[in-house]
Structures are given as C-alpha cells and as structure tokens.
Amino acid sequence: MGLKSKILGDGEGYDYHSLCMPTVPWAKKKMPVFFYPLDEPLPILLSLIMGLQHAFAMVGGLITPPYVVMKFTVDGFPFTNVELQQYAIVAALITSGISTFINVAQVKIPFSEMIFKRPIYIGSGLLSVMGTSFTFLPIFEIAIRTMMMDGIPGEDAYGKMLGTSMLCALLEVAFSLLPGKLLQRVFPPVVTAITVTLLGVALVGTGMKYWGGGVVCGEMIWKEHSQVVDSVGFGMPVSDVPSAVCTGNGKVQLPYGSAEYIGLGFSVLCFLVVIELFGSTFMKNCNVILALLFGYFVAAVSNYDGEPYINTQNIKDAPVVDFLWTQWFGIGLYAPAIVPMLIAYIVTTVETIGDVSATHEVSQLSTDTKEYTHRIQGSLMADAICSMLASVFTSMPNTTFSQNNGVIAMTKCASRRAGYATGFWLILMGVFAKIAGVITSIPDAVLGGMTIFLFANVFVSGISLFGKLNMKSRRIRFISAMSLSVGVGVTVWPWAFQDMRASSYTAAFWECGDCSEFMKGVRNGVSIFLSTGYCVGSVIAILLNLIIPEDPEGVVVDGSIHWSIIGNELNAKGMDGDIKDEVIEIDDDAVSEKAKSSEDDISVA
C-alpha cells in the first residue's frame, strides 16, 4: 500500500469525487452513503476527521464536571484561580484520551485463562470512547463542600475524593469478573434496551440545558427565581453564586432560555437539515463538525449590545503547552463518601452495559455472540481501571460516553481507527492548551444545538433495541412499562427525591438536616440513585427480569390443530391430543408464518 492510499484510502468507499459531490434532493438517482464497519482500515485523513467529530461531541461533556468542581467548589466565589480551572480541563482531556485508547484497543490480561478459566479483557474493542462521568459530580461537590466547612482546604479535599474514587472502583472490577452467562442473565436485551432508552431521555434533557444557555444556569435557575422569592416573601434560601444569568456564552450574559441563545442553537440544527438535503456523502459523514463550525461562525459574527458571544480571553489565558501533574492534590480518603461513591459505580456499570449495547446496535453487530459478552466484560474492566488511572492523573472518574453512539449513527463510521483518532485529538487538545482554550470558547448555546441532536440519536438506538424484542410477550411489556414509568418519571421530574432551591437535606422524602455526616453521605447517595432515571429504571428492570417468570403456554388454534408455544418451540397438537410430526423453533414471525400457510383463520388464545 502506497503513501497516498494510507493517507486518502483506496477503493469505492474512498472515491473523494463521489464523496464530495453535492446531493440533489428528491432526485431519482440517490448518492451512495458508505458504512465503515468495525475493522475497516480507514485512511489517515478520514480517521482524523471522524475522530475529530467524536472529540467535539464529547469535549463539552467531559470538561464540565471537573471545571464545575474546580471553579464552583474547590476554588469558590469569586472564582479567581483561573490556572486551577484551566488545569482541570487539561487533565480531563488527557485522561479521557488515554482511557479511550485503552477501551478501543481491548487488551487480554495475561494468564487470565489460567486463573479464571476464560479470557479476561481490558477494553471493549469497539468505537466506544471514554470521558469524565457526570454521575460523580454531585458527590464530589457535596463531599468537598462538607470537608471545606470542616476547615480542610479545597485542594486537599479534592485529593481525598480522588483516593476514595480509586478505592470504590474495585467494585466495578468485581462486576467485570462475573461469568459471561451470569452477565447475560442479569443484563439481557430487555434490560439494555431500557437502559439505552432512559440514557437517551436523560441526555436530551442535558442537551436542552446547553441550548438554553448552559447546564449550570439551567439547573440553578430553580434556586434563584427572583419573581418567586419576591411574591412568596418568606426568605427562601439562595446560593451565593450569581447564576441567574448564563455565563458560558462569551461576554453575553442573559437569562436561561433567552431567544438569542435559542437562535444560536437553532442555527446548528438548520445547517444539519441543509447538509442532509444538499450535502455530499463526505459532508454527511462530517455533518457534526460542519454544523458546529457553522454555529461557531454565526456566533462569531453576532453580538448582543456590542458584547461578543465568543470568549477569546479563554484562548489568551490558556498556556501554549500543559500536561498532567503541573497541579498536585494529595491522595487521601473520605469515609462518608464511600457509600455514595459505591452507588455511583453501580450506576456507571449499568450505564456502560447500555452504552456498549447501543454501540453494538449502531455498529451493526450482533449481541448474540461471545464477542459481545467479552466486550461487555472488557468495557466494565476498562471503566474501573481507567477510573483508577484518572485518580492518579488528578482527574475525576471516567466512563463510556453514550452520546458518541449518535455520532456513529449519523456518520455511518464504526471503525476502531476513528476511536484511536479520537484519543489522539483529546490528548492533543490537552497538551496544546490553546486548542482547549478554543474549544472552551464555543458558546454553550451552540454546543446545545449540536448535542441535543446527537443525544436524540441515543434515544433512537434504544427504541431500535426495543424493536428487536418480542413485544407481544406479556413479561417483556410488563418489565418495560414498570421500568420506564419510574425511569422516565424521575428524569422528567427529579424533585420528588432531590432538594429544591438550594435547601440542602430538606426533601420530604428524607429530611436529614440533623443527621451525622455519614448518614448525610448515605442519604445523598440514595437521593442521587432515585433521581437518576437511567439508574433506578435499569435496576428495576434487572430485578424484575430475575423474578418475573417466563410467559405461560399460549395456544394458537386453527380448527383441527393446536399450535402450542412452550419455551422457544412451536408444537403442533391435534384435537385428539397426539403430537404431530412438526416441531419448529420459534422466531419473531413463526406464528404469523403458520397463519399464512394455514387454510383456516388462526387466532391466538
């Protein structure tokens, strides 16, 4: 293979003339859209482009938890330690890049077959990227704030949480070592379909927070609604952080949901539609980056009362080069946070299984293979190992990123090489901190327009997994309805179990203002668990799947023959009770095929 082929590729899938030819909408002749499977040896150029899309799709999410913790908790008002905040972003980017390399590569642990009688892997071997987990954000915030109230400096408190995270990650190591059959029994397709769907529902809500102006102001607006405070007039507790306006959109500071923010995000969505109608195959494969760049361009040429939407100060303040350990936090242990952290690792376990299942679906791979079981096991192990490494790298725990399944679905690229390229871009963005400065200058509203579209694709992946289930089964429908009722319910309205308007430990579900620090930690963990839809819904699905028996025998009658559905077999029985010669394995259309072949009408009893 020559240098040109290595860089640009060779073959029909890399015919750049066809790839770059614009589409004529509603034309009779359709332009081909190529799918690049898992083992496709993508050329360097296409790998870098596809990887860059994944990096852009996840960068906003992976830098938010450490940035929020460092700025609003460890540093605190008036947020003057910019160097510490920048370092949090650098460490998160480099750590996520290294974790992504590990997860995409899938390395077999030496001597594992001798010890466990089966191969044990680290990594999924899929285009499954990893980044900082949102699940641990509330625990880090509450625990660090509690320690600081006890006189422990913010940096030391953060170090204690890093050590606590490293210890609790051992729980996920234990999950990853469970036998494959037990994993499949506990996490069958109905559970993964529910988990992926609930993940999509939760992520779309996060995308809306970005679109309206930013996650922080979107969530904090409940705590500082001046009209409510003025009209009620009984001294509702408010935060000391001025979060009534959104500050993640350059120097423009408007209330959450302002028309200007909505317009910026809408420009991204509109350009996605234009690309889908008129774009070439190459443009459709790169639609995420192109739409994001268009939204960034619209923001750059716009202003509000003379104030820009692009914060160039982020670029100026960022050092040219940075790396890990330029800031250091002494590793320690904070006992009250152990129980909430263990619960959080259970959440990420369920989340990772759902993510890998969704990745399989969008990568057009079967879930009925040993490779699927190995990838589930390897991804759980990678979650645990990379979270331990994250503590060593002074960053928060890592997990798989579900939103990147939306990128795979839209770009039609599931090649591992795109995953390696994603890791490369993330590390590059972290080392060359000016790149991180450019990324952090993208307005939150523009990111929201992109992420809400990508997150909705995760939801669609969950619906697709449901489509592969036998939804005529009473058992499947009951498990799905029960799990989704609670999961979607608390996602749409989490305040049944959460404290509202900065009133810590006052939720009626479990008032805990006078509790010990340990019980407050337990209470926070339970509250986080119950108010996280994809967590509580998935656990309900797991438990119901283990205790609800299989459907009882059903009978299909066609006059002289009873077709009995027992287990996964369809048995023909005559009216005299004799078993007929024909016994077939059931598939989704077995009964309907029998109906077509019968001269009489068939009904299901």
From TrEMBL:
Cellular component, GO, one term: plasma membrane
Spans traversing the lipid bilayer: 44-64, 84-107, 119-140, 160-178, 190-211, 261-279, 286-304, 324-347, 418-439, 445-466, 478-496, 526-548
Subcellular location: Membrane
Entry keyword annotation includes Amino-acid biosynthesis: no
Recorded topology in the membrane: Multi-pass membrane protein
Origin: domain of life: Eukaryota
Primary subcellular site in the record, as a coarse category: membrane
InterPro entries from the UniProt entry: NCS2, Xan_ur_permease
Keywords: Membrane, Transmembrane, Transmembrane helix, Transport
GO molecular function: nucleobase transmembrane transporter activity
Family membership noted in the UniProt record: Belongs to the nucleobase:cation symporter-2 (NCS2) (TC 2.A.40) family.
Protein name, UniProt field: Purine permease
Species this chain originates from: Cyclotella cryptica
